[in-house]
Design goal:
about 0% strand, 2 helices, mainly alpha
């Protein structure tokens, strides 16, 4: 089992993975259709989208967490 201290990084990795698959698939489908090599185009697009999503998640998480902490009530 993986230590609980890795929960947040693992969450961001899995979330980036899932979001990048969905977003790259949707964008490729809209721009090029679902036919004639869709899976190849999707995979090629995802190879670039996943690292970008991962870097964005690790970069943006502290900023977004800080913003959310400022706007939520202190209950």
């Amino acid at each position: 089992m993986i230590s609980k201290k890795y929960a947040q990084p693992l969450f961001m990795i899995f979330m980036s993975f899932g979001i990048s698959i969905i977003m790259s698939g949707v964008v490729v489908a809209i721009n090029t259709s679902l036919y004639d090599g869709f899976i190849d185009r999707w995979f090629y697009s995802w190879m670039f989208a996943f690292p970008v999503a991962l870097i964005a998640a690790f970069t943006m998480a502290p900023l977004i967490r800080s913003l959310v902490n400022k706007i939520v009530s202190k209950d």
